[in-house]
Design a protein that fits this description.
alpha/beta; Rossmann fold; L-2-Hydroxyisocaproate Dehydrogenase, Chain A, domain 2; six-stranded parallel sheet; three-stranded antiparallel sheet; 8 helices; 14 strands; 21% strand; globular; binds 1,4-dihydronicotinamide adenine dinucleotide; binds pyruvic acid; EC 1.1.1.37; Malate dehydrogenase; L-lactate_DH_AS; Lactate/malate_DH_C; L-lactate dehydrogenase (NAD+) activity
């Protein structure tokens, strides 16, 4: 499995590269960035640790590297400011992103390659990538609410003092203000969350508020998210590389699940070597379904505004 990261010199791209190196599953990691000096430095720094990790090839170069990639991760783009929504970024990121897509198209991609968008606003840019690259929709995904979901699980676990891997739930919808935490599916150690000692409505509201604000909090305190988004990207890449067919809340083109159509948004998605294999529709609480419909509407309106 050969993975390239466009934007690999930046915080998100380099953290993803490090998580992929530590994971030891992919065979080649190619870093691409307009900042040549920076990306060479990142590749060199990773390479220096490679005798202690796995037998992988790690190198930097230009966009032509993507033609040999099985997964092309795009993290290039501007970061939002703490007081800016992810959707506000569209005005600043869309032209830059279109140029990157044009470069990728010019160079060409391997048959079956998966394009994996991380740059924000991720759902809108995933839709744009799908349209501009002309690839089958199952081969174009966005990180969607994978990061929000790990934030929710991790913070709920910390609040309940249980191991994070024992907490199971997910966030659907937009990676942004209209995200939808699915409390109806939340479990701890296989038990319904509301049966767990100490869990009540105010604890749930507190954890939800922290999760919704966590991206802005990290930006305010350290400039931008790195480690958590890095492991989130690696988790999705590993699921593809190993054809694990796990259910992940990635963003992809919807064709009817939950009443969502012609929009890239996160729903429970079976992911494997060929990309999106299936969207799973589960029964939600009516208020969750309503919020998901609204989230789809927000994204659809933004796509219409930006892409005409
Ligand atoms: N979807 C998600 O869950 C998350 C998304 N993000 C998004 O990821 C993006 C990157 O964030 P950071 O890494 O923190 O920013 P950064 O500024 O550290 O890195 C961006 C990199 O992109 C490079 N770049 C710019 N134009 C390029 C081009 N045309 N071709 C190749 N490389 C180019 C820059 O040189 C820079 O190295 C932002 O849009 C941010 O909002 C960040 C965190 C989470
Ligand atoms: C930047 C961003 O999207 C996040 O940290 O959630």
């Amino acid at each position: 499995m050969n993975v390239s990261i466009i934007g690999g010199g930046g915080l998100v791209g380099s953290c993803a590269a490090f998580a992929l190196q530590a994971g030891g599953i992919v065979r080649e990691i190619a870093l691409v960035d307009v900042n040549q000096e920076l990306v060479e430095g990142q590749a060199l720094d990773l390479l220096h640790g490679s005798s202690l990790t796995a037998d992988q090839k790690i190198y930097a170069g230009g966009t032509e590297l993507v033609k040999d990639s099985d997964v092309i991760v795009i993290t290039a783009g501007l970061r939002r400011k703490p007081d800016e929504s992810r959707l506000d970024l569209i005005n600043r990121n869309v032209e830059l992103f279109k140029n990157i897509l044009a470069d990728v198209k010019r160079v060409g991609t391997k048959p079956g390659a998966i394009v994996f968008v991380v740059s924000n606003p991720v759902d809108v840019l995933t839709y744009l990538a799908m349209k501009e690259l002309g690839l089958p929709p199952q081969q174009v995904i966005g990180l969607g609410t994978v990061l929000d979901t790990t934030r929710l699980r991790s913070m709920l676990a910390a609040r309940l003092d249980v191991p994070p891997t024992q907490v199971s739930t997910l966030i659907l919808g937009e990676h942004g203000d209209s995200m939808v935490p699915v409390w109806s599916a939340a479990q701890v150690g296989g038990l319904p969350l509301d049966k767990f000692p100490g869990v009540n409505a105010s604890l749930i509201a507190e954890v939800e508020k922290k999760t919704r604000g966590s991206g802005a909090e990290v930006i305010k305190k350290k400039g931008g998210a790195g480690f958590a988004v890095g492991v989130s990207i690696a988790d999705v890449v590993h699921c593809i590389a190993l054809d694990q067919r796990r259910i992940l809340p990635v963003s992809s083109l919807q064709d009817g699940a939950f009443g969502l159509r012609d929009v890239c948004i996160s729903v429970p998605t079976v992911m494997g070597r060929t990309g999106v294999m299936q969207h799973l529709e589960i029964e939600l609480w009516p208020k969750e379904q309503l919020a998901l419909t609204q989230s789809g509407r927000v994204l659809r309106e933004t796509v219409d505004k930006v892409l005409g």
